[in-house]
Amino acid sequence: MRGEKLLLLLAVFVAVAKCQQPKVSISPNFTHLGIFSGDLFYLKCEGGSGPVKWYFNNSKQSEINETLKITSAHPKHSGFYQCESNGKKSETLPIDVNGKCATWTFNIYKSHRLCPKGASLTIRTGQPVMQTGGSVILHLENEDGLQGWKCWVNRGQNQIKKILLRLKNTNDISINFQPSRLLVPETTFWCTDRNQNSRSNQITVSTSAYFQTITFYQNNKVIAAGSSATYNFTDVTESLEGSYRCCAKFTYKSHTAGSPFERVSDDHYVFVQDELPVTSILVGLVIGLGVLLVAVGVYCYRKKLVTGPFYENLAMRS
């Protein structure tokens, strides 16, 4: 009897699911703030079951999963999105991509977008592609101040968390902060003001476990090559002083075919200072103390000749 009730409830649940109209949702939801060129967002067909069909401006798309990913938004992505599940279509979701968000490039590896009436978020330390477990330092700047601003991180389709900013002064217009380590293939950051009426551009950092070769250079000469992202100095000598950089060849997890990508770090100069021998330090200290004692003795002797004993009470002048 109990088994029959469970089967009946299951049948009712399946029937309700089939009758439910699907709905298209967006994450992160920037529809009220505006979607900028280059933004990453996901569309999900909620409430349906089984295979999903996607439509863009009434044109059927090739995607059949319940999630449709827009990797880099462009004005061509503006339009109406709709999904279909179990023969039922959702209502259309309008998407408008703002193409006025210009891209300014600092160098061939780093860039940032400066958006109208918003703050600028850039990578201060790190690269757009990092090794799994690495971390980046981000820089947020807003000419109108950062009081009340907070940042957000999306480590998955529905894993959005808040990052609280600790300003030194209430009138600060920029801040550096370091989020948690990068443990997922793709992590997206952005920031908003107190009431979420304005936001910065997005920063997306990808991770790759497929570093093929990492090469370290000292003064343009190869000193190490392999799969390790760390080079350790075992014995520090003057010969280690010089300019260092590294070069990484890697492939993305989703694109392992074809030629690997290559990134080269900036040059960093390492200074090495010799240690002074202990005997030299002791001799220097003895000589210094001797000179100091002689100087104090001469000063006290001359002071005594001029004013007499230090404890002498001088008559107050009338």
UniProtKB/TrEMBL annotation:
One of its GO terms (molecular function) is transmembrane signaling receptor activity. Residues 1-19 form the signal peptide. GO terms for biological process: cell surface receptor signaling pathway; immune response. PROSITE patterns: IG_LIKE (PS50835). Keywords: Disulfide bond, Membrane, Signal, Transmembrane, Transmembrane helix. SUPFAM superfamilies: Immunoglobulin. InterPro entries: Ig-like_dom, Ig-like_dom_sf, Ig-like_fold, Ig_Fc_receptor. GO terms for cellular component: external side of plasma membrane. The chain crosses the membrane at residues 281-301. Residues 22-94 form the Ig-like domain. The keyword Cell wall biogenesis/degradation does not apply. This is Ig-like domain-containing protein.
